[in-house]
Design brief:
110 residues
Length: 110
Amino acid sequence: ARKLADEGKDTATSALDEMAKMLHSAAGYVDERLGSDYGRYARSAADGVSGFAEHLRSREVDDILADATAFVKKSPVIAIGAAAAVGFVLARLIKSGIDAAADLGDDDKA
């Protein structure tokens, strides 16, 4: 179980690193389209995601679980809301992936 948890942590930190890179890349586009203030927000978000990835990378799985348990006990309403929000985002991502795959299948038939 520990090995799987460590692999999951590595996968999560790698995904967060990729997301931070995408946000940094998008910041230039945001600068052009919406203005430098919004680009600064995108860069700030990228830095926050990158910092969170580093924080996770430096922690042991047991410490992360203990922190999460303490947070849920301290703020159960926020934890439930965050879980619902993450679930909604994941559902939308999965649905958009399924829709994109279906669109590709339709293109192959045409």
